[in-house]
Amino acid sequence: MAASDDVESPHDRTLDVPEPASVADLLASVARGYPLPLVERGKATWVLASGVPLAVFAQQWSVPRSVLHLPLRLEDLDYDGRTLRLHFSYLVQLPPDVVYDVVGRLRLRAL
């Protein structure tokens, strides 16, 4: 990734997925339907969020790892009308295991 990659940002995209029954189904659909860019040396890390972090995606992992303390209900995520809004944050080449550990410890809502 380079600064020139964001010349035409934001990079909005609509992804039609079958009606997911769970956050896990949603993550699987996103992973299949939205391939992330590959970077040189094969070490790139992203966090997928929808109001709260959902999963860590890493170029060196075959599947994303969901954050376990998530609400399991899709209704708790970020919607604009009937559209579920998702956002990828690119965390350059930070080690995905470290990112997963940190994101897994976040508490963004009062318990």
What do these coordinates show?
- The mean pLDDT is 81.
- Helices cover 19% and strands 19% of the residues.
- The protein has 111 residues and is an alpha+beta fold.
- A four-stranded antiparallel beta sheet has the order 3-2-1-6, with helices on both faces. It has a two-stranded antiparallel sheet with strand order 4-5.
- The protein has one domain (18-105).
- The protein starts with 22 loop residues before the first helix and ends in a 6-residue tail after the last helix.
- It is built from two helices and six strands; from the N terminus they run H-E-E-E-E-E-E-H.
- It has helices spanning 23-33, 96-105; strands spanning 45-49, 53-58, 65-66, 79-80, 83-84, 87-90.
Summary?
This protein is α+β, with helices and mostly antiparallel strands and 111 residues long.
N- and C-termini, Cα separation: 37 Å
- Major sheet, described briefly? 4 strands, antiparallel
Helix residue percentage = 10-25%
Mean pLDDT score? 81
Query: Which percent band covers the strand fraction?
Result: 15-25%
Topology order in helix (H) and strand (E) letters: HEEEEEEH
What is the radius of gyration computed over CA atoms, rounded to a whole number of angstroms? Answer: 14 Å
Low-confidence stretches: none
Q: In the residues, how many domains can be counted?
A: 1
Per DSSP E runs of 2 or more residues, the count of β-strands stands at 6
Q: If strands are numbered along the chain, what order do they take across the biggest sheet?
A: 3-2-1-6
Tally the helices: 2
What best-fitting shape do the alpha-carbon axes yield?
globular
Given helix and strand content, the structural type is alpha+beta
